[in-house]
Structure formats: C-alpha cells, structure tokens
Amino acid sequence: MNPIIETKALTKFFQDPVKFKVLNEVNLSIQAGEFVSVVGKSGCGKSTLLYLLSTMDTDYEGQLYLNNELVTGKSDSELAKIRNEKIGFVFQFHYLLSEFNVLKNVMLPGLKLGKYSNQEIEHRALEQLRVLGMQDQALKMPNQLSGGQKQRVAIARALINNPLIIIGDEPTGNLDKKNSDLVFDIFQELSREHQQTLLIVTHDPDFAQKTNRIITMEDGRIVE
Do 55 and 4 meet the contact criterion of CB atoms below 8 Å apart? Predict the structure, then answer.
C-alpha cells in the first residue's frame, strides 16, 4: 500500500515557560483513500499534530513523508507549494473571503497555484460546487449563505487543486446536527466515490464512529 502521509517518531516541544513535550514520538501512516478521524481530550496534541502534518509548523523532531517524499527540512517556499498543490484544508470556520462570490472563493487556490488556465479553474470550481449541490449558489456572496452552505463551499475550495489529502480541523464544530451529518456524508462520498484521503480532527464521537479508522490521542501519544 502507498501511504499518503507517514510520520516517524514525530516529536514536538513547547516552551511555556518551561520546555515540555506536546507530541511524543508519533508514528502514523494513512493510506490512499482512507477516511480517518483523530480524537482525544483538549490539550492531547491533536491540533498540534495536524499543524505538523499540514507542514505549517516545521519546528519538530522526527520525519514527515507525503506520498513517500520526505518533506522534513524543505524550504518555506517548497512547503508553501506542497500545501497549495497536495493538501486541502477545511477548518471549523469557513474562512471565505467576503469580497468575492462563491465561485471566486472556490477558484482562489487554483489561481494561486497557476497550473491551469482561468477558464479551466472556473470549470473545475463549478464542477466541485455541482458535486456538493452548491452550483446554483455560485454567484452569491458568502453573507447570503447559511453556515452549512458556507462549509460546503469551503470543502469545494479544498478540493479545487485535486489534493492528495484533505485535512480538517473540527470541520463540523460550528454546525448543528443536520449540517454536521451533511458534511459527514460529503466526506464519506468523497472517500468512497473519489478515493479522496481524509484526516479529520473532531470532538464529535458520532462523526468519528462513522469513519474508517479512529486515531485516539492522549498526552501527545497515539494510544490506539
């Protein structure tokens, strides 16, 4: 099997005010097409782990591989390119830009990557919105959408560059049960129909139970 993300003895310290270990030799492997959730009490290291895996934090010990390529030690510009091209992000808050309509918000990471023509990016953005049942909202502004709709637009944006993995930090944390279920169903469909790899940190036990695999963290370690 080809792991999309693999870590070897990933260790992270914080200075606050004394040095303490927030991640302790985490060994992790996520295969292509897996839908994995990460759970654990607040302060167990889940969000810290996510930041390391997403290459946004490079101050750690151990190794991180993305698609069998060592990313530890790469330059900031190389990491920025990897993030834009290979990782899609969905956060608790949608972070849509209020001055752009839905379509433009979805297109932005594609325009930034600069790999395809604007026409092709627009076509891909509309296709992602169609998959998520949002194509009829394409020309609306973010403030005209409900919370659940905004999160669907954020998912479309995360998918625009056809990433190797979608990383989510509490993507349903701000939503009611109905919209949480809707977002879960979208993720499940992406995993099943499109073999999209997903790694989602969640506080929602119902959400976690329905994923392919649950990684439980405690005191900076993976316990199961």
Answer: no
CA distances to 62, 137, 145, 184, 222 from 149, in Å: 39, 9, 6, 13, 34
Whether 39 shows a pLDDT value over 80: the answer reads: yes
Band of the pLDDT at 6, cuts 50, 70, 90? very high
Q: What is the DSSP letter of 74?
A: -
For 28, 47, 107, 122, 151, the CA distances from 94, given in Å and listed in that order, are: 27, 17, 15, 20, 6
**Cα distance between residue 136 and residue 130, in whole Å:** 8
Which of 20-24, 26-30, 62-66, 194-198 has the least mean pLDDT? 20-24
pLDDT band at 94 (very low <50, low <70, confident <90, very high): low
CA distances from 201 to 49, 112, 167, 174, 216 (A): 10, 26, 8, 13, 10
Token pair listed for 206: 């119902």
- How wide is the angle at C-alpha 195 spanned by C-alphas 54 and 9, nearest 5°? 35
